[in-house]
Write a structure and sequence with these properties.
two-stranded antiparallel sheet, 330 residues, three-stranded antiparallel beta sheet, elongated, 15 helices, mainly alpha
C-alpha cells in the first residue's frame, strides 16, 4: 500500500495479504480513515486491549493493581477482540449478568466499575473517544456488620491451624487488615515500645500507621520470635498470602460460625472496642479510617453515651398515667 495523507504524510506499508482484492480494500479503507481523521476530526478507533494495557501502565502504583490484572484477564474473553466503538451498553450489561451469575452482583459491580473507569479515562484523559456508554451497576444493599462474640472467637481459634490461629489472634488484638498482618516484618515491630508500624505504601489509606500493641498482641509476637528472620507470620517459610482458605472454612464450620470472612476479624475487633467503651474518635485513629462515616457503622453497638439523654424522660409516662388515673377517679 502506498498513498499520501491529506496533511502530506506518506503511508507505505504491507497489506499483510497476498490477495490483491483484499489488499485494495484495506488500502481504500485506510486512506478514507486517514482523510476522515485529518479533515473531519474523526478519532481513530482504538481497541479495548490498547486501553487495558495503557490503564495498567498508568495505574501500576495502585495497591489493587494485581486485582485489576486479574479482572482484566477475565474481561479479555468478552472484550479482547473488540474496538472501543464496539463496547456498547448492551454488551456491558451482558458481561455484568454473566459475572453476577458466576459469583454475585456485588462482585460483578467491581468488574463493571473497572470497565467504567477505563472508558472514562479513554474519553476524558486520552481523548480516544467522544462518547462512552453508561455503565449501570447493580444496587447493593447495606450489609450488617458481621462480628463474633468472645466465646465464638475462642472456639474459632481452637479449630484453626496454628499458623492461621496466631494470625487471627494478632488481628483480633490490633484490627490490622489481612495483608498488613501477612507481610508484617520484624523491622516494623518495636516490642520494647509496644508499637508496630505500617508504612504508607503498605496501608490502604496511603498514610503511615502506628499500631499500639496490647499484651495479647505482644504474646503472639513473643511466640513467633526466632521462627523467621524477616517476616513475623509464615507458613513453610513464606508469608501467608491467602487466609480465607478451605482450612479457614472448615474451622468456621467446626466452630459453628456461619458467614464469617477473615476481614470480619477487623469488624469484630472494632465491635469489641466500642462495646468496651472506646469512643468512635479513638476507634477511628486506632483503625486508621479516613472518614468518620466508616466508624459510624459501629455506633449502634455503644448506646452508653446516649443513656443520659434517654433518662431525661424518666418518669414522664408514669407521672402522666398517675394524672389520668386521678382524673378518672374524680
Amino acid at each position: 500500500m502506498d498513498f499520501t495523507t491529506p496533511n502530506g504524510r506518506r503511508v507505505r506499508e504491507s497489506s499483510g495479504t497476498h490477495d490483491q482484492q483484499q489488499a485494495q480494500e484495506l488500502h481504500d479503507r485506510l486512506k478514507v480513515r486517514c482523510w476522515e481523521e485529518q479533515r473531519l476530526g474523526v478519532k481513530p478507533d482504538r481497541s479495548w486491549k490498547e486501553a487495558a494495557v495503557r490503564w495498567l501502565k498508568e495505574t501500576s502504583h495502585k495497591r489493587s493493581h494485581d486485582k485489576d490484572v486479574a479482572k482484566l484477564r477475565w474481561l479479555d474473553r468478552h472484550l479482547g477482540p473488540r474496538m472501543l466503538s464496539e463496547v456498547t451498553r448492551d454488551l456491558i450489561d451482558r458481561i455484568g449478568e454473566i459475572k453476577a451469575k458466576e459469583s454475585s452482583q456485588p462482585n460483578a459491580n467491581r468488574y463493571l466499575a473497572l470497565i467504567r473507569s477505563i472508558l472514562r479515562r479513554a474519553r476524558d484523559d486520552w481523548e480516544w473517544v467522544h462518547h462512552i456508554p453508561k455503565v449501570r451497576l447493580y444496587r447493593e444493599s447495606k450489609r450488617r456488620i458481621r462480628w463474633i462474640t468472645r466465646d465464638e472467637a475462642v472456639r474459632l481459634l481452637a479449630e484453626l491451624p496454628s499458623h492461621l490461629a496466631e494470625m487471627a489472634r494478632f488481628s483480633l488484638s490490633t484490627g490490622l487488615r489481612q495483608r498488613n498482618v501477612s507481610y508484617l516484618r520484624w523491622d516494623q515491630v518495636d516490642m520494647g515500645r509496644k508499637v508496630a508500624w505500617i508504612h504508607a505504601d503498605e496501608a490502604k489509606s496511603g498514610r503511615a500507621i502506628a499500631v499500639p500493641l496490647n499484651e495479647d498482641a505482644l504474646e503472639v509476637l513473643r511466640s513467633r520470635q526466632g521462627q523467621h528472620a524477616q517476616y513475623v507470620f509464615t507458613y513453610q517459610g513464606k508469608p501467608v498470602e491467602r487466609c480465607t482458605t478451605k482450612a479457614w472454612d472448615r474451622a468456621c464450620e467446626r466452630a459453628e460460625i456461619k458467614d464469617f470472612r477473615w476481614h470480619d476479624l477487623r469488624h469484630t475487633w472494632a465491635s469489641w472496642h466500642v462495646q468496651s467503651g472506646t469512643s468512635l474518635q479513638e476507634l477511628m485513629e486506632l483503625g486508621s479510617w479516613t472518614t468518620f462515616e466508616m466508624v459510624m457503622r459501629y455506633a449502634h453497638l455503644a448506646a452508653d453515651h446516649l443513656r443520659v439523654a434517654a433518662c431525661r424522660l424518666d418518669g414522664t409516662i408514669t407521672s402522666q398515667s398517675a394524672k389520668v388515673h386521678h382524673l378518672r377517679a374524680a
